[in-house]
Amino acid sequence: MQLKLDNSKTYAIALEGGGAKGAYEVGVWQALEEAGIRYNAVSGTSVGALNGAMMAMRDLPRAIACWEDIRLSRIMALDTDAEQDLSRLMNGQAELEDLPELISPAVDIIKARGLDVAPLRAWVREIADGKAIQQSDVALFVSTVDLTDRQALEVKVNDLPEEEICNMLLASAYHPSFRQEKLGGKFYADGGFVDTIPIHALVENGYKDIIAVRIPGLGIEKRFRLPEDVSITYIEPTRDLGFVLNFDAGQARRDLRIGYLDAQRVLYGLFGRDYYIDRSLSDREALSLLLDILPPEPGRTLRHHCERRLPRIARRLNVAAGDYCELLMACVERAAQEQDIDPMAVYTDRQLLSLTGLIQE
User: Fold this and answer.
1) How many CB atoms sit inside 10 A of residue 106's CB?
2) pLDDT above 50: residue 146
3) How far apart, in whole angstroms, are the C-alpha atoms of residue 294 and residue 84?
4) CA angle (122, 32, 224) in 5-degree steps
5) Is residue 224 pLDDT above 80, yes or no?
6) Average pLDDT, whole number, for the chain?
7) What is the pairing mode between strands 151-156 and 139-146?
8) Confidence band of 109 (pLDDT split at 50, 70, 90)
9) Which backbone phi and psi does 90 adopt, to 5 degrees?
10) Cα dist. 312→210, 315, 317, 318 in Å?
11) What is the 3-state secondary structure (H, E, C) of the chain?
């Protein structure tokens, strides 16, 4: 595969908030590391702030291990039964008759005026090394809302006293469902209320080449005028990442893989909608293969196939634009889906053609 992103540059990374979907960002980070993409700044909101802290520490193995071991009780104070019940509910495994029993933990949370934040606080302190962040060569910015002083904040975390760093990371991720407690003498709210993907913090501090990692969900995206000399490369999910509060190791491992593959799609210009396809065929070769795999229509001319049959197939597969290679890849993807070929891998176009039996090698 040939790298499409300029790895002679040094980038700043913006990480969106997204709760349990945050493992996706670590998968993206893994792909960036393998491609040799350098970075010297990270901005994050909510779970993006927590992932950003590990990026500032340059500790990818820690980040992967944290997400692969994630579970609901690391975030919420729950007993084993309540954790299992809520996990079933969030995974869509609950039956209608189970709902009264499953609602009980939620009622307890309401009575306690919100979720106990102690487990999350402990998790943040486990994953974030304040001294390492202070001494890092990576600038770390987080977004949050200072409820006490009623203002939105973009904070450079490296400049904080070591004992305040974990509090500020937690402040960025302080969800409205959490029991209100002061952090360093103030009340805070999730940064997603003011800037769910904190690109502004990077632009404001002079960074020009930015990679923004999106996680679709609730939140407000800060609007501002983007300078003409700022370039943003977006990496975003092509698959559903699951429920925002489903802190489950199974979902996290899947989201890690999706993030890794979606980053490779952008880094290497991979083709495909549901598959990740490294293109090697020329347009002429693709046309020849398309003509070879078409069901025979005796008496029809080559011009008929090119001007009538292939455009009909393109409309049916919703490939209005692009060249013959893109049309061929759409045909290959359709065949791969029908044959249940694993989409969570990178294939060359010839590999996928062979696996689907459309060509014989």
Assistant:
1) 14
2) yes
3) 52
4) 80
5) yes
6) 87
7) antiparallel
8) very low
9) -75, -25
10) 40, 5, 9, 10
11) CCCCCCCCCEEEEEECCCHHHHHHHHHHHHHHHHCCCEEEEEEEECHHHHHHHHHHCCCHHHHHHHHHCCEHHHCCCCCHHHHHHHHHHHCCCCCHHHHHHHHHHHHHHHHCCCECCHHHHHHHHHHCCHHHHHCCCCEEEEEEEECCCCEEEEEEHHHCCHHHHHHHHHHHCCCCCECCCCECCECEEEHHHCCCCCHHHHHHCCCCEEEEECCCCCCCCCCCCCCCCCEEEEECCCCCCCCCCCCEHHHHHHHHHHHHHHHHHHHHCCECCCCEEECCCCHHHHHHHHHHHCCCCCCCCHHHHHHHHHHHHHHHCCCCCCCHHHHHHHHHHHHHHHCCCCCCCEEEHHHHHHHCCCCCC
Residue that has been written with the tokens 């999706």 in this structure: 258
What's the Cα-to-Cα distance from 258 to each of 20, 32, 68, 153, 251, rounded to whole Å?
Answer: 14, 14, 14, 31, 10
Q: Positive or negative, the Cα torsion across 151, 156, 160, 165?
A: positive
What is the end-to-end Cα distance of the chain in Å, rounded? Answer: 21
- Distance of alpha carbon 222 from the chain centroid: 19
